[in-house]
Amino acid sequence: MMKCTSIYASFMLLFLATVCHAEWISPTDKKYANENSALYAEVAKAKALISDAKGRTDLNHQAVDILRKVLEKDAKFAPAYVQFARVLSNLGYQVNNRFDGDSLRSQEDYLNKALALEPDYDYAIAMMAFTKMFQGNLDEAERLYKKAELLGSSYPFLKSQQAQLATRRGDYKKAIKLATQSYEENKSDSNVTTGAINELIFAYERLDGNYNQELEAWQTKRRNLEPNVAWNWGDHARFRLYFLGDHEGAIKYSEKALALMNYGVARYILAAAHYKKWADLKGTKARSSEAQAAWEKAQKLYPDAREVAEEFIENPTLRASGNAILAKLGAGVTR
User: Fold this and answer.
1) Domain for residue 217, yes or no?
2) Sign (positive/negative) of CA torsion 130, 57, 105, 51?
3) Is the pTM of this model over 0.85?
4) Domain coverage including residue 271
5) Which tens digit of pLDDT belongs to each residue from 14-61?
6) Domain for residue 267, yes or no?
7) For position 333, which CATH number holds?
């Protein structure tokens, strides 16, 4: 089970936002659309499926089938290669802010094919920068992002992705500046603004100091922008629990996430929130039955209470609750 003390649950939100390219169309895409409107319409259909997938592998596979047929008709149709890279990103995503290595190599191969056909294809350049960033080659990613800038690209996620690069380099103030600019410049497009909000959340979570007020505001804003995206609710639940120690808020938001989509991270957070509730209520005689019910719910969701406790102990906000759980298990207090 993936642990949730950091931004792991958040990452998928970032990834989906940065690969969903809204209504923006690259000048290169426009050229191909003018040259073969029917074939580009198929690419656009695949692009929409990839953007709408949000964890649905069936939509990603539908996009793969469409793109294969496009390339069978015209192996030099560059936009299809870019969308192939996008769908491979979706299918290759793993937990803990990682992509499958084979997926990253395949993405790079497809993007190289697009760039061999169209060297100044800003969409492909930005996607390659994104791929290089996740391969750990931050210098090459930065070079490619600068190249897209020099081409005058209006790629809407450029600043958000550069903000992510700044976060990876540990320059959180720069990341916040870039993400704020992206948010302010793209308020009419929820996909772009969501991507910017993701970056703001990532940077504020890492920045020294207490930024809980800012984080709560951005978490709420993101939820309101996309209320039907389960990960938005799950990540807000994670924040309420791991940053604020609010078991009730975490329970409420993780239950909402699970109502939208049954996924492991939200189930884990819900279990952890019930363990926290037990720890918060166990000493109150009038609420002892409520505390016991919380423990039983937590056990059904995630029976390994020791693992949850050990994770709690690593978090100053939850340390006392973690020690209480270990004491109940007869494991003693470790810190």
Assistant:
1) no
2) negative
3) no
4) 227-335
5) 444 444 444 789 999 999 999 999 999 999 999 999 887 766 778 888
6) yes
7) 1.25.40
